[in-house]
Amino acid sequence: MDNYGILSIIPPALSIFLAIYSRNVIFSLATGAFVGSLILADFNPFFAVVNLIEEHVYIQASVGSNTQVLLVILVIGGFVHLLEKSGGSSAFSTVIVKYVSTPISGQVSAWLAGISIFFTDSGNALIVGPLFRPIFEKLNICKEKLAYIIDTTASPVSILVPFIGWGVYIMSLIENSYKDIGLTEQPFSVLLSVWPYQFYAILALLSIPMILSTGKDFGPMAKAQEKHNRAQKQQEKKRVQQTSVEPKSDASQARLSTFLIPITVMLFSLISFLSYFAFTEGVKSVHVRSGILLSYLFASFACAYLMKQRKTISYNESLNSFVKGMEKLILICFILILAWSLSSICKELHTGDYLASLIGNAIPSNLLPVIVFLLGAVMSFATGSSYGTFAILMIIVVPVAHTLGAPMPLTIAAVLSGGLFGDHTSPISDTTALASMGANCHHIDHVSTQLGYSLITGFMTIIAFIIAGYYQSPMVILIMIVVQLVFIQVLMKFFGKRSSIEQNPTQTQVILERESNSIVKNMR
Question: What is the per-residue DSSP string for 415-472?
Answer without folding.
Answer: HHHHHHHHHHH-TT-HHHHHHHHHHT--HHHHHHHHHHHHHHHHHHHHHHHHHHHHS-
